[in-house]
Amino acid sequence: MIALAGVGYRYAGAAGPALLDIDLELRDGEVVGLAGASEAGKTTLCLVVSGLAPRTVGGQIRGQVTLDGEDVDAWPMHRLSQTIGIGFQNPSTQLSGVTDTVFEEVAFGPMNLALPRVEVVARSWAALDLLRIDALAERDPRRLSGGQQQLVAMAGLLAMRPAHLVLDEPTAQLDPAGTRMVGEAIERLAADGASILIAEQKTDLLASICSRLLVLDGGRVALSGPSAEVLADLELSRLGVAEPSEVRLRRAADAAGANVARLAGAFARD
Amino acid sequence: MTAIAAVALGGLPGPIILVAAAVVLPAMAARVLGRLVRTALLLALPIAISAFLVNLFFFPGATQVLFRIGPIVATVEGFGFALEILIRILAISGAVTLFYLTARPGDLTLDLERRGISPRIAFVINASVQTVPALVERAGQITAAQRARGLDTEGNIWRRVRGIVPIVGPVILGSIAEVEERTMALEARGFTRPGRRTLLWTPADSVRQSIGRWLMLAALVGLIVVRLTGVLG
To answer: Among A16, A85, A110, A222, who pairs with A120 as Cys (CB 3.0-4.6 Å)?
Structure first.
């Protein structure tokens, strides 16, 4: 379990903090969503949870980040990366750029860990299989679609065998088909026991895969709770988060005096 | 080695035979002769032309006039030396181009790592080589996007120069902007872990290849010694 207690974070040279008093628990096998307007602090929180802030990014952190009860403050990034994986929104920047096949790309992380060759190969195939992209193994990763590249990047993270995954808007540059591929992959990972924190603007995706949701505003947690409750909260629009289509449809139907359940039943009978 | 040998060899016939044997024939065998000629000429032409003209017209101590253009005199001695310089430049650019056309950057860096070079240095070499085609591709995409918005990149030279600015800016700024995210992605994949990393495979290196390399190196050393000591005059 990853736990943040009273965490605040300030980028180097910034006038004010980017995060304030964040409390978060990410339990094993749980998918937690992170929503909020631009500059609300979603990416910063992802960096803090993954350990990249302040290790790589710099800046100052306060509060406590623990991993299975252990303070990870002194852990170097290469150790932390075996426990927490992080994926970003731009698929192409997550690829190493120095490999000629998808298999080599996925194996890049385990190779860096100096694992035995047999273990590297086994992990890479397992990650490709889990995301159902083993057919891409021989392809050039630079010649794939955005959705496929994102899955390859995720496979590269999974081959590190992290128990926890942080995904910062993994579908931001993807079309609906790519978004669906990533969403399905996340559900499979969660079913396999991984705990996942996902920052997303696409609330339809959050509604379909997350059990809990946090909405950030100005670096603080503005809303928190089961995703169905948070996504139906009337405050959501004010916080710069689009309501999912189901909620919008229900509100429109309510306004028109229609019964959504009865309409859905009628459609189902047709 | 070809490039160094071309410089070490004197006169014209030696470098010409060297280029034919060590650049043209291997390029034909690898079926990259067309690309090699285009790329090597593109690389060499600016410096080759200027070196040729400077030697043709301003060779020190030359006396035999070849032709005159106003006050500038082309000399026979200058022409001969300019040809020697030209073939050496073509040998160097040809050898370098042949290497990049026939060696996969991944193979090169894996082999360097196998021989003990730091994984980080190997990565930098590999990434540097792979960055060029990536930048060319990005520039192509941005050019197409800018053209779609009405940017004129054809016509006279002034229009072309003006058209470069809105393309170069996004190419360079976009690349810089990606650096931070790429760095973090590498960190997240254990790239900063100290020590050696696992190599999945290493490029094939037969005994014959190894003997060939040592023989070529020995020949090169011999050639340099001969040139320096003046054994062959």
So the answer is: A110
